[in-house]
Automatic annotation (TrEMBL), chain A:
Name listed for the protein in its UniProt record: Outer membrane lipoprotein-sorting protein
Domain Uncharacterized protein TP-0789 as annotated: residue spans: 72-251
Domain of life: Bacteria
Signal peptide bounds: 1-17
């Protein structure tokens, strides 16, 4: 009996150790699949923001990205075209994993090139239910990740923040597709264990061999509001130069990359 | 007429109220296919109704409204492979000063040359420098009348007919702006707001009391700038005019004295915040020794700023600003009204709070200027509600305090006002 218990404990310890590496690998691959496809990329994007009273707003923009290193620092350029009060507004981010990002905002009506200070990444991205972090990625080192179970289709992970005071959630769970490593469903729970926020992937397409999220939805279950995000005409590995992501692009966004490839 | 404008806005907005759909068809019907092929031509703009009323009374004016207007802003852009054409204008019915006004904001061609140079040719709005509502090296025209009257902050910048050439090199970027005929600020001239006139020792206004000789000379502005790993460094030069007519010529007419500005700035992140430092030497070319009593002296101007997010959605910025008048003894020795001259070192502190709520639909803002030297202040509170992509409403105020009639902000105590703006954008 004792022997069996010993064996069980040993096996259990082994499997924990194994899942430890598995979890790190899964999280790493999910991060790469979600935010680092190709060395660079572009896509048209459109959001519909719907509040509880069914009032709708729209945001339309083109997003350009270049990775300096897979899983590491990145450059983003976001050029808005709608609605008219944000038309030609440009957002430039030099995203850094180890320190604060450098961010600039260009406001065309004032010809104002505005350096902006780092902000809480879990605040609304341009008035939508998406957070900055949903769009550019959450640092994988900020949370403890645990593989809860797996089946044919998904890895089921639960993650808890290392610094609970820095975020509004107590934990979140992910369903990560085993074939693509894209998180297809993320649910955020509050201190009471209730799900209050949900990020769902609605449609995925193969683009140049990269599984690419084409449609996703964020729901705020507290307010009843939600945001739909749709991508169109994504393309990867275009050979974007570094100078696409410099201050010049604030006043003169690169037309050749803004247009569909 | 203004009321008609408001009804027109409501009528135009009808289709917005009419639209309805269910969540299920969001993906298809509502989005339509109109983002399929980008059109080279685009139109956008807004209709706005605005009212502002003095909080106290300025006896110089019979009408205590400072703003009562219906405004149509329209932008037309044409995008060609090799150039962009930009046109935007404002047409507004001004019930305070009277009449239908046209303000051409942009009429320019934008194109690139040699791969590394961008050109903007024509009427345009230009901004540079690191200050927040404080300007040291930005000598481009500003519209102080709009700023004080409660129009949108975007109207602080006024357009000029100019050519701008910006070249980007490995070592350095160079920005040139040539304005063939100098474009002054839209300064406080007595029409909408009264101002203190030192030589009379009293407040003047009620009509256009400052009617200066228009400048004829060109303005040259240059900026050398570089971003070194997030540290933004710039050097500035300017040869042109004082942007407000703070000189009086031999004929007794107000005019825009000639001026040079030399300066530098640095901006970078420090921890979670953002720090900026800017310095400028303003040289009064028509009063190089400071002994001309009717022409403003030169100045050193210094600015130190810090900005950060205090808590989620609440941003705070502060600035310390110094204006040091050069040849101060000469100024005082020759001044016709030394009691009304500014202090040799004029200190100003500013603070800005911005709070976004309701998923950025509601924005609370407070900007305060306070000068311990002049013992005066200027408060700009506002709240903006963005109902949807079409409708926005802004309530706000512009409040001046001061102990003396002659100080920079104090002279505008009776210009303190509260405003409301309603905007429909398309």
């Amino acid at each position: 009996m004792k022997t069996i218990l010993m064996i069980l404990m040993f096996v259990s310890a082994m499997s924990n150790a194994a899942s430890g590496t598995d979890v790190a690998m899964i999280i790493e691959r999910a991060n790469l699949a979600s935010f680092y496809a190709g060395d660079d990329g572009r896509s048209d994007a459109r959001m519909i923001i719907v509040d509880a009273k069914d009032n709708k707003q729209m945001r339309q923009f083109v997003i350009l990205r270049k990775d300096l290193e897979d899983g590491g620092d990145q450059r983003f350029l976001v050029v808005f075209s709608r609605p008219s009060d944000v038309k030609n507004t440009v957002f430039l981010v030099h995203k850094k994993v180890a320190e604060e990002d450098d961010r600039w905002l260009y406001l065309p009506a004032l010809d104002l090139e505005k350096r902006i200070s780092a902000s809480d990444n879990r605040t609304s991205f341009v008035g939508s239910d998406f957070f900055y972090e949903d769009v550019s990625g959450r640092n994988t080192g900020y949370d403890e990740h645990q593989l809860v179970k797996e089946d044919e289709q998904y890895f089921y992970l639960t993650s808890t923040p290392k610094d609970p005071d820095s975020v509004e959630f107590a934990e979140y769970s992910m369903h990560i597709d085993k074939a693509t490593f894209l998180p297809m469903l993320i649910e955020y729970r509050d201190q009471q264990g209730d799900v209050y926020r949900r990020v769902e992937v609605v449609e995925v397409a193969d683009v140049q061999g990269h599984a690419t999220v084409m449609k996703s939805k964020v729901s705020n279950l507290k307010t009843g509001g939600y945001t739909l995000l749709e991508f169109r005409r994504p393309a990867y590995d275009l050979g974007m130069e570094d100078d696409v992501f410099t201050i010049r692009s604030l006043r003169n966004p690169p037309k050749n990359w803004l247009n569909a490839q | 007429m203004i009321r008609t404008g408001l009804w027109l806005m409501l009528w135009l907005a009808q289709p917005v109220w009419g639209q309805s759909s269910t969540a299920e068809d969001d993906w298809d019907d509502d989005w339509g296919d109109d983002w399929g092929e980008a059109s080279p031509v685009s139109h956008s703009g807004f209709l706005e109704w605005a009212q502002a009323h003095r909080i106290s009374t300025d006896d110089i004016f019979s009408d205590q409204r400072v703003l009562s207007e219906g405004r149509w802003h329209h932008a037309f852009d044409y995008e060609h492979e090799d150039f962009d054409f930009n046109w935007s204008h404002d047409v507004y019915l001004d019930d305070v000063l009277g009449g239908l006004q046209l303000d051409l904001r942009e009429l320019n061609f934008q194109f690139s040359l040699f791969g590394q140079t961008d050109v903007v040719l024509g009427r345009q709005i230009t901004t540079w420098g690191t200050g927040d509502l404080l300007f040291i090296n930005d000598q481009f025209p500003k519209d102080w009348q709009s700023f004080f009257a409660g129009r949108d902050d975007n109207y602080l910048k006024a357009p000029a007919d100019a050519i701008r050439i910006t070249s980007y090199f490995e070592a350095l970027n160079i920005d040139w702006v040539l304005t063939p005929t100098a474009e002054p600020d839209r300064f406080i001239n007595g029409e909408r707001f009264s101002l203190f006139f030192p030589l009379a020792g009293s407040q003047v206004g009620g009509r256009e009391v400052i009617n200066p000789v228009n400048p004829r000379q060109p303005e040259y502005a240059v900026r050398l700038f570089k971003n070194i790993q997030g540290h933004q460094l710039a050097l500035y030069g300017y040869h042109g005019i004082e942007k407000s007519p703070n000189g009086i010529n031999a004929a007794g007419e107000p005019f825009f004295p000639r001026k040079n500005v030399w300066g530098a700035s640095w901006q970078s992140t420090v921890g979670a915040g953002l720090v900026n430092l800017e310095l400028g030497r303003h040289v009064a070319l028509d009063d190089s020794t400071g002994n001309q009593p009717l022409i403003a002296n030169g100045q050193w101007r210094l600015l130190l700023g810090y900005e950060r997010e205090l808590v989620k959605n609440l941003n705070w910025g502060m600035q310390y600003y110094l204006e040091k008048t050069t040849d101060y003894q000469q100024l005082m020795d020759h001044s016709l009204a030394p009691e009304f001259e500014p202090a040799e070192n004029r200190h100003v502190m500013t603070s800005r709070f911005t709070y976004r709520a309701m998923q950025e639909k509601l924005t609370w803002s407070l900007f305060v200027f306070y000068s311990p030297t002049d013992d005066d202040s200027y408060w700009r509170p506002s709240v903006n509600y963005r109902h949807n992509d079409q409708w926005q409403m802004t309530l706000g105020g512009s409040v001046f305090t001061g102990q003396q009639a002659n100080t920079f902000f104090g002279q505008f105590e009776d210009a303190s006002q509260a405003y409301v703006r309603l905007r429909f954008q398309y």
